[in-house]
Amino acid sequence: MLTGPGLTPADHTRIFRWLLAVAVLVFAMVLLGGVTRLTESGLSIVEWRPVTGTLPPLSQEAWVAEFDKYKTSPEFQKKNSDFTLSDFKTIFWFEYLHRLLGRLIGAVFALPFFWMLWRKQIPAALKPHLWGLLALGAAQGFMGWYMVKSGLVDRPDVSQYRLAAHLGIAFAIYGYIVWLLFGLLRPVTGRLDRFCLLLLGLVSLQILAGAFVAGIDAGFIYNTWPAMDNGHFIPPDIYSNPPFWPGLFEDHRIVQFNHRMIAYLIALLVGLWWWRNRDRGGPAHLLAAATLFQVVAGIVTVVVLPYVPAWLAVFHQAGGLILVTAVLYALHRIRR
Q1: How is 42-104 classified by DSSP, letter by letter?
Q2: For residue 336, how many other CB atoms are within 10 A of its CB?
Q3: What is residue 238's predicted lDDT score, i.e. its pLDDT?
Q4: Crossing angle for the helix pair 60-70 and 85-118, nearest 10 degrees?
Q5: Model confidence over 84-103: pLDDT tens digits?
Q6: What is the DSSP string of 203-253?
Q7: What confidence score (pLDDT) does residue 261 get?
Q8: Quick count: other Cβ atoms within 10 Å of Cβ 54?
Q9: CA-to-CA distance for 76 and 156, rounded, in angstroms?
Q10: Where are the domains of the chain?
């Protein structure tokens, strides 16, 4: 439990519930971001108006004006030139809700934070972490617009590098909050398990690899499992044609292959770790179940491409969040 001068159990409960609410909103934000990406709605709003953009168009004239702005974008000119105003409204609402939820998360975090700071209801040990989360949230807002901006110049898609950074910061924020919540529930002592740290690093790498898959639509090139290219488990000349660099981040074959191989490595290591720690109870079983769920969701997503149901894509995105939660839970509970 949090302690400090003047702090009460009610303060502890208040902070826990507040951070839990923010974590739930961030979880929903990541899923909505996945839907926005899947429906190709992210470039429908071509301006960044953090304050005045809170309200959607409220009249027919406002909708026409917003649509006219979209018509100046590369996405409309190169991909969606046949769009009607009705088509535009469909993609607009996904991006609008995505941005609105981002503003809501900022308010839900910042307003109680500054209020509790003023009331001296936050312990000194927790303040640096909360300031860090506030900084990450501000960086995420900037990165979101920086990502969108990359698709408004000459290409009808956002940069996969900026997309990976945007998704990475989102998962970092979520993981940071979850780690603080575990600490509030049950402070523990002892050294962190190095194997769990390795798993956390691999899962983080896999999340970024998945962002590159989404960023260049690399999931569409191989839609069979476990074989990839004409029955080959490892596509011929995968790292020589095209060259490894910059193919590592830009070639469809290499990007999807890397995503699969990291997934296999994580599944293998989790299986071995679970066997050694199966008597530890909940943390070990939760991590194994979360890994299995995500692997199965990934396989099904690949097999059903190129017609991925939105719910399946959301399941896969949610699986990543659940897996991060499970790894952090195991890292927190299983100590050396």
Answers
A1: TTS-----TTGGGSPP-SHHHHHHHHHHHTTSHHHHHT-TT--HHHHHHHHHHHHHHHHHHHH
A2: 9
A3: 80
A4: 100
A5: 999 999 999 999 999 999 99
A6: HHHHHHHHHHHHHTTGGGT---SS--BTTBSS-TTTTTTTTHHHHHHH-HH
A7: 93
A8: 12
A9: 8
A10: 1-187, 191-336
